[in-house]
Q: What sequence folds into this?
């Protein structure tokens, strides 16, 4: 099996390609697997950006952070795609109804913000769960997660 290449969200072409895939979604797009509807999936993707840019999610304590780094970091920032119906952390579980347009708009704004801040701003930047990450690790973490869920919804 070849290692997948994920879109470079720091490049204009990578961001544009990812945004075009997001634009292919509609409020009635159905999942090919999993429990979330499309608006919940967009809200789910926004949680990762909220953890980066907002102060609305509890940060793991030092012991939990060490465990996450040891057991989960390579799965999250490494190239191997997520399997279908992978388990998710509690803060990423979206059970209530969400507004499709609002969630997609938030996601696009977060993606553009990351792109505009640029690769140098992310080199060595601290992740709440995994400690310092390289810009490439940040890109894989966000791009792989996005790709996983866009494939879930056929985009």
A:
């Amino acid at each position: 099996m070849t290692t997948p290449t994920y879109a470079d969200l720091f490049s204009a072409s990578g961001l544009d390609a990812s945004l075009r895939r997001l634009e292919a979604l509609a409020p009635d797009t159905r999942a090919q697997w999993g429990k979330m509807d499309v608006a919940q999936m967009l809200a789910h993707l926004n949680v990762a950006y909220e953890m980066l840019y907002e102060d609305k999610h509890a940060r793991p304590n030092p012991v939990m952070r060490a465990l996450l780094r040891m057991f989960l970091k390579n799965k999250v920032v490494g190239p191997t795609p997520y399997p279908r119906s992978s388990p998710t952390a509690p803060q990423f579980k979206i059970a209530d109804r969400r507004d499709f347009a609002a969630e997609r708009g938030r996601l696009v704004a977060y993606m553009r913000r990351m792109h505009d801040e640029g690769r140098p701003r992310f080199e060595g930047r601290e992740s709440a769960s995994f400690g310092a990450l390289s810009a490439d690790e940040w890109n894989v973490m966000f791009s792989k997660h996005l790709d996983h869920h866009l494939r879930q919804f056929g985009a």
Remarks:
- The longest helix spans residues 100-117.
- The beta strands are 125-127, 131-133.
- The chain has a mean pLDDT of 94.
